[in-house]
Specification:
The structure is a single chain. The chain has 248 residues and is of the alpha/beta class. Helix content is 34%, strand content 23%. The protein folds into 2 domains: 114 residues, Rossmann fold, CATH 3.40.50; 124 residues, 3-Layer(aba) Sandwich (Rossmann fold). It is built from 9 helices and 11 strands. The strands form 2 sheets. It has a 6-stranded mixed beta sheet. Strand 5, helix 4 and strand 6 form a beta-alpha-beta unit. Helix 1 packs parallel to helix 9. 27% of the residues are buried.
Length: 248
């Protein structure tokens, strides 16, 4: 069956140079964006219940912009002045750049990884004597605690925000040829919003092994999988599929 419409379960890109817009133009398909999940901050009361003393840490591990926002939100609400000596270990340049929203970048000790957590671990290893705080969501990839525990550093996780299912009720009678997912939480949202969802002729695209597994565990069929050697990005995988489907 031909592909004419795609729904990506993420917010619309903020830049006009997104490869999704190129894909839409080149393949003449309509692409919509909608967050299937969103993030909500955890209250100070809930954070205090975790018995975390922010003053006990000399370094912070930041894996996302959400982690940055909610760490500084909680620090402010707890009236904790983050010391200038605090060291920041950022998983990517994007996270490090975002940190400038809260600190004077050139006056802080900031260490930047190459996008993946194992890359960041190499930097953390050089500072093993620090006491690390890991601001987290309620859903943390097992890789992160596994890597930190293997390294043997002193670290503590604090949940500061949670992933929540978005209300998609307005999409009940809207149908797309392809639904695109990037996390198991997206599949969870689909089924919570539409417990009687039938895949029928809808194709499902999934990014990453955990997302693919969530699709199959939900009893659905995964038609498009990324990344792969041939299609390292989701837009490349979609383009390959669309070209084949629309030739028929």
């Amino acid at each position: 069956m031909k592909v004419k419409t795609i729904l990506v379960s993420q917010p619309a890109p903020k830049t006009e140079t997104s490869p999704y817009f190129d894909l839409s133009d080149k393949q003449k398909v309509k692409i919509d964006f909608r967050s299937f999940i969103h993030v909500e901050g955890i209250s100070v009361k809930e954070v205090r219940a975790q018995k975390i003393d922010l003053s006990k840490f000399s370094a912070i591990i930041l894996t996302s912009r959400n982690a940055v926002d909610h760490f500084f939100r909680i620090a402010e609400e707890m009236r904790f002045k983050v010391p200038d000596s605090m060291k920041y270990f950022c998983q990517s340049e994007a996270v490090a750049y975002y940190l400038q929203k809260y600190v004077v970048y050139r006056k802080r000790k900031i260490y930047v990884g190459n996008r993946t957590f194992p890359d960041l671990i190499k930097l953390i290893k050089k500072h093993k004597t620090e006491t690390f705080l890991l601001p987290s969501s309620d859903k943390l990839k097992p890789l992160i605690p596994d890597e930190l525990n293997t390294l043997g550093v002193a670290w503590t996780r604090v949940d500061l925000y949670k992933t929540v299912v978005s209300d998609l009720s307005d999409l009940e009678n809207v149908f797309y040829d392809i639904l695109v997912f990037f996390s198991p939480s997206g599949i969870e949202s689909l089924l919570k919003n539409f417990p009687d969802f039938k895949q029928n002729d809808t194709r499902i695209a999934a990014f990453g092994n955990s997302t693919v597994n969530a699709v199959t565990e939900a009893g659905l069929k995964c038609d498009i999988v990324a990344p792969s050697k041939e299609t390292p990005s989701m837009t490349m995988a979609l383009e390959k599929y669309i070209k084949a489907a629309n030739k028929r």
